[in-house]
Amino acid sequence: MKLLLDTNIIIWLLAGDERINAGVRTLLDQADEVRYSAISLWEIAIKAGNGKLNLKASTVMGRLEGTFVKPLAVLPQHTLPVQQMPKHHADPFDRLLIAQATVEGFTLITGDRELQRYDASGNVIKLIYGL
User: What 8-state DSSP symbol labels residue 89?
Assistant: First the structure.
């Protein structure tokens, strides 16, 4: 299984947040590949710059370097599915992460229940609740 971490999962993982429980850790440990997207660093940088988040993107990148979580670049083809997505909510970061996961064959791991509405197949998005 190939996993892409939503921004909230990255932040919680680095903070040692209790929402990253044993079930989530098992899922991460059993994955063939675990990635974080440059999209998440962009989101963190924007929110930090706006004063909404007390965390630097460079800190996140540095803390993830050398771990089992590898970076995933944003490519032009990742943007294409966004155009056909329903507008369940307007968060451009989430929409691009979903598109990237879809194009690359990853499952997006998230704590955001709203994102589940984008996953008609049940294969693209996995909520951490109940793990």
Answer: -
